[in-house]
User: Fold this.
Amino acid sequence: MSAALLQIENLRVHFPVKQGFLRGGQAGVVKAVDGVSLDVAAGEVLGLVGESGCGKSTLARSVVRLVQPTAGAIRFEGQDLAGRGGGALRALRPRLQMIFQDPYASLNPRRSVYDTLAEPLLVHGVVPRNAVAAEVKRLMEQVGLAGRFIRKYPHEFSGGQRQRIAIARALALRPKLVLADEPVSALDVSVQAQILNLLQELCREMGLTMILISHDLSVVRHMAHRIAVMYLGKIVELGPGHDVFRTPLHPYTRALVSAVPRTDPEAEHARKRILLEGDPPSPLNPPAGCAFHPRCPWAAPECRRGLPPLAVHTADRRAACIRLETLPGQAPSATTPA
Assistant:
């Protein structure tokens, strides 16, 4: 890994909620992403985890500008994405690609595999027109599918095969950064490992940088160099993957890690679940102070008053909790805010 390829600074994505018969009034604002800052190094796989509805997908979509950011900065290779549009944004798009969650919805059922993979090659002029067919076959073989299937349609493939085609489409423009939004959650368990192994192999062979989004920590456990844990639009913990699993800092991360089954029977028997009560608060009306305090087993009165910053606890660990010193178990000492 080297210098930061992607820099996100204080990113906010807010959606107004309309009301009234003609939807002319505004009832409030949904703070889907609320002040997120992240750096992703070239060649790194960053795992972004959290419950459904915490803002993970909105964050990814704002990076590729499928969603317009409300505020903040997004820099890719030092170039501002948030302020770009039209031809300037289109010129950068080939280097930023996204793999969507549902391969049944992300592929056009009326278009053959050849048409799906050939379109980006032709639009961006990646290869000469007379070499498109050969490049489409190469892409199919790169993701483990036979080139002879390029004239088939999406309904003729299984879910895992469709996701491989979606991955091939993302790789067609030879990107530097790929955002994989729950790439295996719509697939059978038996197929999930195959797709994850494929993504890992492609990252290694092509030197890809990836943001792997999931609500399941076990999915990103063996792939991610670092893990960012998201809750209600904010990053609450950030650190190396193995450290986050071994010594989670934030109470929410501890609850997530405690829910991951162990392969060792003795470790599984000794595993103690941290059960969270209630549902996540609404992003339309988040609680004051720490957003996690209504569900936190260790919440104190001060958690309701102040918004905890994502503070540096060691050289490579950050967590947004003002009570780490008094929580049970090990936790490094907090130092300065990030």
